[in-house]
Amino acid sequence: MAGSDDRAVLRRARGLGSAKSGVRHWWWQRVTAVALVPLTVWMLVLLLATAGEGRRALMVWLGNPAVSVLTVMFVVMMAWHMVLGLTVIAEDYLHHEGVKFAAITLIQVGGVIVGVAGVISVLWLALGGTQ
């Protein structure tokens, strides 16, 4: 009769045991969510302050380094949080390993593209961009 230790070893060998990365993923999802609370308030203040004023007003605000840093932090945290959340959805609801791998790869690549494009856009506007 196999003991509980033997079954745990067998489950890990079959890929049914802990992958040892769930806690880290869970932790980062919470960290990004908590960071996004004040950053989202910040972004709403920025957008409301420049609403109706046009692109030039936004560029003036983003010309302040503190405003640019907070805006870049918002973009990075939002992209990272998006990737973490969509990855969990793919892991939980896609059961074919090939489809799951492709979806997670696309999610990660898309997240990097969104994050980099957002940071470049903020920096472009902060540095004067094309007026």
Question: What secondary-structure arrangement, pairings included, does this model have?
Answer:
Blueprint: H1 4-13, H2 22-50, H3 55-62, H4 65-93, H5 97-126
Termini separation: 77 Å
Count the domains: 1
In percent, how helical is the residue content?
Answer: over 70%
DSSP helical segment count: 5
Global shape: elongated
The chain-level mean pLDDT equals 87
Q: Low-confidence parts, pLDDT < 50 over ≥5 residues? A: none
CATH homology group: Fumarate reductase/succinate dehydrogenase, transmembrane subunit
The percentage of residues in β strands lies in under 5%
Taking Cα atoms only, what radius of gyration do you get, to the nearest Å?
Answer: 21 Å
Q: What name does CATH use for the topology?
A: 3 helical TM bundles of succinate and fumarate reductases
How would a textbook summarize the main sheet?
A: none
How many β-strand stretches? 0
Element string (H = helix, E = strand)? HHHHH
> Helix- and strand-based class?
mainly alpha
